[in-house]
Amino acid sequence: MSPPKKSIKDHDIISNEIMNGKSSVEKMMLELDRIRKLQVKEAMQARIWKMGEDLNALHREEQSKEERLAREKAAEALRQETAFLAKLRHEEHLAATRHQQLNLQHEQSTKRINEMLKDMEKKQREAEEKKSEEKKQREAEEKKSEEKKQHLKQLLNRIYESQMSFRAKYQQISDATKSCKDRQALVPALMEQVVKLRSLCEAMEQMVKRCKVGEIREDDAEKSSSLVGELDSILNILQEEVDKINARPDQVTQADSNSSQVKPLPQNSSESDPQREVTEQPQVSEQQRPSGVEKLEENASLPKTSALDRISDELKDCVDPESLKMYINLQNNLKAFEKSYEALFTDDRWKKFRIDCQKAVSTPVNAISPISSAHMMDKLLRLRQLLTGQPVDIGNSRVTSSAHPSGIAYCKNLLAKKLVKQGEQTVSSKPDAAFAIAAVVVALWNEFPDFGLLLVAHFHKECPYLVPFYIPQRGGQSDEEYYKALGYRYLDDGTVEKQDKFLKRMSGIMRLYAAILVTKQMRQYQNNPHPHGVANGWRWMAATLNLDPQPDICASLLFDFLEVAGNGMAAHYKSQFQKLLYITCKEYYPRLKEVTPAGSGGPVSRLQEFLQKTLRNGGFIPPPEALISQPLG
Q1: What is the mean pLDDT of residues 442-462?
Q2: How far apart are CA 142 and CA 477, in angstroms?
Q3: At 208, is the pLDDT very low, low, confident or very high (cuts 50, 70, 90)?
C-alpha cells in the first residue's frame, strides 16, 4: 500500500481565487471545509497505512520469534538427551568400579578371616603354653615365697636376739651408772658417749619399727649385731671408768653436786630483789635427759677442779662461772655429737645420702614463713618425718635419714646449724620471720631435746655474746682467729667484715633466739614446761648486766632482746622485771655510754630511745607485731 498523494493543484487554485478575490466569503468557507476534510482523509489514510506496516512488522517479528523458540527447544532437547546419555555412561562406569571394589573387599575379607582363624589357633596354642608356664612360675614363686618367709623368720629371730642383747647391755650401762660412787666424776665420760648411745638407741628403735611393719632389710641382722657390738664397747668404756672411780678413796661429792645446782629463777611477782642475783640458769626438764642413763643431765655441770676454778677466775670479767660451765658443756656435747657420725663422711658411698639429707633440711627451713598455720605445720611435719627416720620427698627422689645408723644424728645437727643460719641470713633482713621459725623450733625441741641442746650450742658458737661470753684474745692468737672466735666473717680478700654487717647478723641471731623464748607451746604440749622459756632470757639479761659492757654489740643485742622478748618477760616476772629495767637504765646504760666510741653511738641511741619510751609508758613494752598469738597446731 502506497500513501495518498495531496492535490497540490487544487490547493493552488483555491488559494489563487482567494487571493484574487473572485469568490465570496461563503464560498470560501465551504471550500476551506472541503479542503480540511480532504486533509483529514489523507491523514487517516496515512495512519491506516502506517498501522498496516506496523502490523506486518509485528507479524514478521512473531514468526521470527516462534522460529527461534523452536530452534532453542530443539537444542535444549538435544542437550538433555546428551546429558542423560552421559549420566548413564557414568553410572555404568561407577557400577563397574563398585563391582570391582566389592570383589576386592570380598577377597580381602576372605583373606583376613583366614588369617584371624590362623591367629586364633596360634593364640590358643600360646595361651595353653603360657598357662602351663604360669603354673610352673606360680609353683616356683610359692616355693620361693616359702623360702623367703623362712629367711625372714631367721632374720627376725636374729634381730630379736640382738634386741634382747641390746636391752640387756643397755640395762648393764644403767646399772653401772647407778653403781658409780661419784656420778659427778662420771659425767665427762658419759658426755663423750651419750650422743653415740642415743644414736644407737634410735637406730635400733627404727629397725624394730620397720620389722613391725614388715620392712625388713637383708643387712638388718648384721646391723643389729653391729649395734650390739658398739653398745658393748660403750659398756666396757663406762664400766672401766666406773671401776676406776669406785677404786678411788671416797670423796665428798654431794657438796660439789649441790654447789653446781642453780638457784631457781623467780616464778611469781614476789618482791625479792633480782638486781645482782642474776647468774641463775633454768633446770633441765625430764624430757632433756638421755634415755637409759638415769638422772644424767645433758647439760650437767663440769666437776669443779682447780684448773676450771683458775680459768673461771681469769675470765671473771668476760663470763660468769655458771655461764662458762654451760658454754663448755654445750660445746663438748656438740663435738661429741659431731664425732658420733664421722663414719658417714669417711665412706664415699654415702655422699649422695649426705647431699639428699642437706636438701631435706634446707628445703622446708628456707620455706618457713608466717603465711598461715597450715603452711608452718606442713614444714614442721616434713622436718619431724626426717628426724624420726621416715621417708621424705625431695624433688623427684626420696631420702630416709635412718638408712644410715648415724643419719638421724647427722640431720639433727644439720638442722640446728641451718636454723641458726636463718637467724643471721633471713631474720637479720626480715625480723618478722623470726616468730614463724621460732614456732617450728619450739615444736621440734619438745620432741627432740637433744636437737635443742645442739641448737643452743650453735647459737653460742655463732654468737658467743648469747652466753654471754666476751672472749678475750689469747697470747699468740692472730687477729683473724680472734675475730672469728667473736663471730666475725672474713671476706675473700682477707679483710674482716664491716661493723654494721656484723651487728646486723648478730641482731638476726638474737631476735630469733629471743623469739624462741616467748613463743607459745603447741596445743599438744601446752601442759609441758617450755623447753627453753623466759627463764633463759632472765639468765642472759642478768648475766649481761653483771659484766662490763662491750661497745656497740651489747647495746644492739640488748635492744633486740627487749624489743622481741620484753613484753613476755614483763608478763612473767612483773615487778621484778621492772626492777631489772631500772638497773639497766640507772646502772648499766651509763657504763655502756662510757665505752661507746665517738661517732658510733647508733646502737646506744636506739637503746636509749627505747628505754625512755618504756619508762614514759610506766614500764610497758608492747608485744611485737609479728608475734604469733595462737599456738601452732
Answers
A1: 95
A2: 72
A3: confident
Q: What are the C-alpha distances in Å from 21 to residues 7, 11, 14, 349?
A: 22, 15, 10, 160
pLDDT of residue 633: 61
Nearby residues of 448 by Cβ (< 8 Å), 6 or more positions away: 387, 412
Half-sphere exposure of 34 (CA within 13 A, CB side): 10
pLDDT of residue 14: 53
Amino acid found at 218: E
Nearest to 631 by CA among 471, 467, 450, 439: 439
DSSP string covering 113-159, please? HHHHHHHHHHHHHHHHHHHHHHHHHHHHHHHHHHHHHHHHHHHHHHH
State residue 300's pLDDT score.
Answer: 32
CA 624 to chain centre: 26
pTM assigned to the model: 0.56
Per-residue confidence (pLDDT) for residue 152, from 0 to 100 = 81
Place of cell 489563487: 16
Q: What is the DSSP string of 413-476?
A: HHHHHHHHHHIIIIITT-TTHHHHHHHHHHHHHHH-HHHHHHHHHHHHHH-GGGTT--PPPPTT
498 confidence band (pLDDT: 50, 70, 90):
very high
Cβ–Cβ < 8 Å for 395, 389: no
Long-range contacts from 273-278, C-beta under 8 angstroms, 24+ separation: 273/579, 274/538, 274/542, 274/573, 274/576, 274/579, 274/580, 275/579, 275/580, 275/583, 276/546, 277/542, 278/538, 278/539, 278/541, 278/542, 278/543, 278/545, 278/546, 278/580
CA distance 263 to 286: 18
519 and 628 Cβ atoms separated by less than 8 Å: yes
What are the domain boundaries of the chain? 8-138
pLDDT value at residue 166: 85
| Bond from prior residue into 468 cis (ω within 30 degrees of 0) | yes
* Amino acid, single-letter form, for residue 176: A
Q: How far apart are CA 437 and CA 380, in angstroms?
A: 10
Alpha-carbon distance of 630 to 521, in angstroms, equals 9
What crossing angle do the helices spanning 373-387 and 407-422 adopt, rounded to 10°? 150
Asked if residue 454 lies in contact with residue 416, where contact means CB atoms within 8 angstroms, the answer is yes
CB 426 within 8 A of CB 303: no
Give me the chain's average pLDDT, please: 82
* pLDDT, position 419: 96
Per DSSP, 630 falls in state: S
Hey, what amino acid is at 133? Answer: E
- In the predicted structure, residue 361 carries a pLDDT above the cut 60: yes
Grid cell for residue 312: 673461771
Cβ-in-10-Å burial (0-12, 13-18, 19+) of 442 comes to buried
Can you tell me the distance from the alpha carbon of 21 to that of 267, in angstroms, rounded to the nearest whole number? Answer: 169
Secondary element (H or E) of residue 397: strand 397-399
Neighbours of 236 (CB within 10 A): 12
Three cell numbers, residue 324: 662458762
Per-residue 3-state assignment (H helix, E strand, C coil) for 480-495: HHHHHHHCCCECCCCC
Q: How far apart are CA 628 and CA 520, in angstroms?
A: 8
Distance CA 595, CA 607 (A): 14
| Rounded Cα–Cα distance for residues 624 and 370 (Å) | 14
Model confidence at 313, in pLDDT bands (50, 70, 90)? Answer: low
CA distance 574 to 542: 15
